[in-house]
Write a structure and sequence with these properties.
- By secondary structure, the protein is α+β, with helices and mostly antiparallel strands.
- The protein has 4 domains: about 5-70, Phenylalanyl-tRNA Synthetase, Chain B, domain 1 (2-Layer Sandwich); about 80-270, Phenylalanyl-trna Synthetase, Chain B, domain 3 (Phenylalanyl-tRNA Synthetase, Chain B, domain 3); about 280-345, 2-Layer Sandwich (Phenylalanyl-tRNA Synthetase, Chain B, domain 1); about 365-550, 2-Layer Sandwich (BirA Bifunctional Protein, domain 2), CATH 3.30.930.
- It contains 16 helices and 28 strands.
- Strands 4, 5, 6, 7, 10, 11, 12, 13, 14 and 15 form a 10-stranded mixed sheet that branches. A 7-stranded mixed sheet has the order 19-23-24-28-27-26-25, sandwiched between helices.
Amino acid sequence: MPKYEVRHDDLERLVGKKLTVEEIEDILFDLKAELDDYEDGIITVDYSDTNRPDMWSAEGLAREMRGYLGIERGCPKYEVTPPKQEVRVDPSVQKIRPYIASAVVHDVNLGEAGYEQLIQLQDKVMLTYGRKRRKVAIGTHNADLITFPAIYTSARPEDVSFVPLWENREMTLAEILEHHEKGREYAYILEGLDRYPILLDSRGKVISFPPIINSNDIGNIGPDTRNIFIDVTGPDEKAVMIALNVIVAALVERGGRIEAVRVVYPDRTVVTPDLSPKTFKVNKSYAEKISGLRFSDSEFRDLLERARYDVVRVSGDEWTVRYPTYRADIMHQRDVIEDILIAHSYNRVEPKLPNFMTKGGASEYAKLEDAVKELLIGTGAQEIATFILTSRSVIERAKHSPVVELENPVTETFSFVRPAILPTVMDFLSANTTEPYPQKVFEVGDVVVADEKRDTGVRTEQHVAYALADSSVTYTDVRQVLEFLLDNLGVAYELRANDYPWYIQGRSAEVVSKNKVLGHIGEVHPEVLESFGIEMPVVAFELSLTKILEVLR
């Protein structure tokens, strides 16, 4: 979770109110944060929400606190003057890092505290919201040193040289990736590319080398810098826009005036930043149902305004509200209701016991899962637990087909939801080839499979997979385990010969009960074993517990 530091006196100045450490601690608790430490006037804030980058600085925190304390109400308003400058985007960045958003903020009064907050906010946004700069990278520069228009283009690693931040000599882009601290840290983002993104001014001077480092002159701002040019780049245009809005809104808290920038793509022109508020609808009755509270219309309006919403329209039970565009976390009424409860204060919500009693008990599936685990443990097998998220490599090496890919995975290792358990079981066996054999393992867990009948095209099932690895195992060995399991569960079944890519042809079957295919069984194909580096034969089966439960009902 994001953790950042603010100066006590700076926070008080931004809020416009004297606050004791105890008062700050109480407010932070309601704002989903904690006062992690306090030393020599420095407050360490541990913020629990990774979807609110606007709150990761003294400026954003103060803005929210002013609403919470009733000092300010409603959606913050931002005046943006029309663009005088532009950034021209070369087509060569399209397949490298295609999007850029920019702004110029004039007359900023940073000082030491504001400068510290700006650098810290940039780093936090790039690290957490920006997925270590892969999704979003931010540069802040001295606008007075830039001759516009700026050019966002690409260059070969050896063709451009400049003095990067914190260096005193020119380096090529390739040398920066090899020798500069930030270059070494983030070189992986540009791995495999023959051209790198570069931002130049109209004289050809380097402004920045996104997502790696700024130049040491134009990009080296300080506490006294008054006019700041911001560039944000990345592969996700929406995320790029949000990050720019977060930085710009923070600089406004330091007295800045926003001037838009015209971003000229080969096929369109975009003016950034767009700080026009967004609208959303919330039902008062739903808020009362979720919270367990009752609000008069005036109370409901007051809480919304203190939570930094404007009430645009009230039509019966439906309230249309407006909220600031630097927020990307409003996706459901519950998100607005959470802000209402924060404004109300969680500490003021009185706990109540329910007026009915229920008797707890295990579900049908829980009973089935427990029975399956007990029976397989009885065969001498060890239960394992692998991740539901895995990589394309693991799925394809097991000769399965990927179904669901994550849109913004943190790592390549966890970029797909597994379509079956057997691939991750094989990956487990591959990591234990130095352990004694025979190895008998099983796992019960969730998978996501294709389903054309559903709107989403997929459904979640619960599966069990069993595998036995040893020098002399055969199909008969694994069939005996399957028979033991299903007979004891009371499932009448039959085996029908069927070939699967991950089993040896002619040595596999589908498991059928009441004309429903429950799963499969067979001897794992040598190509699968080789791809996982497993030198022993493996026999296995995988069953859908979801379908077994349907059969047993």
